[in-house]
Amino acid sequence: MQLRKGGLMFAEILQTIVEETRGGAGAVLMGYDGIAIEQFFLPIDGLDLQLVAVEYANILKEIKRTAEILDSGFMEEVTIRTERFLVLVRVLTDDYFVALTLRRDGNFGKGRYLLMREAPNLRAALA
Amino acid sequence: MQLRKGGLMFAEILQTIVEETRGGAGAVLMGYDGIAIEQFFLPIDGLDLQLVAVEYANILKEIKRTAEILDSGFMEEVTIRTERFLVLVRVLTDDYFVALTLRRDGNFGKGRYLLMREAPNLRAALA
């Protein structure tokens, strides 16, 4: 029951983030092990967003480890801009992060704001 | 002669980027192999910025590879925000990138602008 409630809440939050961000393509709540708890993806030609998220989970794990080793403080946010997409990542806990993928011409600032706004709700639902 | 000229130009450009960005701590022009061509660092307590750059070179190599595999287009820019620092990375060529580290409260937008403004100059000096 608790889990189901959390699951519903996760899906709703991710959908809100994607739909309220102009150019939003998908969002995923994922562990550093690359396993998604929940996701919401719009269909995008020629891109498997779930695969994107899994690949980036590995990278984030490395960045997290590096930040800790270097004592530069906890990693909070990572942004990757490619020719076609923007990937915005916000760290939630030691084990989980949320990632939003948007089109290059999407509203980066709005996406970033929504990830920040929803982070406490996602964190609460994870607990 | 050519090389020395390039070296001088690199050092000047990196220094300009760091000094004109409020909160700027250091900048490095580096290959994905983690070997720096040139760098300009201000002394920062408890942080070895050269080590930071080397560690991040590995991560960037991974991100670059991932972006190519996923066909999400070339990686252009990566931003990593930790508790204490912001690391801004701009890809220059298939082999080299420039990274600017600034304090958390530094002027992110100005740093990003300067990296964009100087990228063609760095690229020209690399050629």
UniProtKB/TrEMBL annotation, chains A, B:
This is GTPase. SUPFAM superfamilies: Roadblock/LC7 domain (SSF103196). Residues 10-102 form the Roadblock/LAMTOR2 domain.
